[in-house]
């Protein structure tokens, strides 16, 4: 059950990508708190689907965009320098390793559409919460905000699943209900083919 809101989405996108998907192992599933970054990174499953008919990956949840940059004053310096944090670099490296393990060898060239599904970790008391509030229990589950996910995720996939941010022409992001497969983000990257108008036939 989706709990998020649509940013924008192309029509009939689901038909462009095969529907099967590898899931994260069940031992990543329920620990009350969000699983550690290293645990999920080492356990998340990934799979390539087709030859540029689309790519679907299951990745560990990204770090927050608030931790994407870090600032420091170099020794002997007087001004702070801002650069990409070590955590952000590590997430990008892990995303690349998982994509390579899934069989992704080159990014999709040209325009793409992204579908992002963010799954929070299911707490140990989820059944109790569900009985108390069947329709809204998932709202009380701790989860990183969607807007904080996208910046780090797009940066990690740039040059891996698609060529550049400028080629992302459609983006659909939603927060999902926690399930038995643990905290993860499922990303589907679909090529967008531009339609060409056929020349008019001579009379």
From TrEMBL:
InterPro entries: Endonuclease_RusA-like (IPR008822), RusA-like_sf (IPR036614). Pfam families: RusA. GO terms for biological process: DNA recombination; DNA repair. It comes from the Bacteria. Signal peptide: none annotated. One of its GO terms (molecular function) is magnesium ion binding. This is RusA family crossover junction endodeoxyribonuclease. It comes from Rhodanobacter glycinis.
């Amino acid at each position: 059950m989706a709990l998020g809101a649509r940013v924008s989405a192309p029509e009939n996108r689901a038909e462009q990508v095969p529907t099967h998907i590898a899931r994260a192992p069940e031992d990543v599933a329920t620990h009350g708190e969000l699983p550690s970054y290293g645990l999920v990174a080492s356990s998340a499953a990934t799979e390539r689907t087709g030859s540029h008919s689309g790519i679907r990956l299951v990745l560990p949840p990204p770090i927050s965009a608030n931790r994407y940059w870090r600032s420091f004053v170099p020794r002997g310096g007087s001004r702070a320098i801002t650069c990409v944090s070590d955590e952000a670099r590590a997430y990008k490296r892990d995303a690349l390793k998982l994509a390579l393990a899934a069989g992704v060898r080159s990014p999709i060239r040209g325009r793409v559409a992204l579908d992002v599904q963010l799954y929070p970790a299911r707490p140990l008391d989820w059944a109790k919460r569900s009985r108390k509030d069947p329709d809204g229990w998932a709202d009380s589950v701790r989860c990183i905000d969607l807007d904080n996910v996208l910046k780090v995720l797009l940066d990690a996939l740039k040059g891996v699943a698609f060529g550049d941010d400028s080629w992302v022409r459609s983006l659909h992001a939603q927060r999902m209900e926690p399930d038995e497969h643990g905290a993860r983000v499922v990303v589907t990257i679909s090529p967008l083919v531009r339609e060409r108008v056929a020349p008019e036939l001579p009379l």
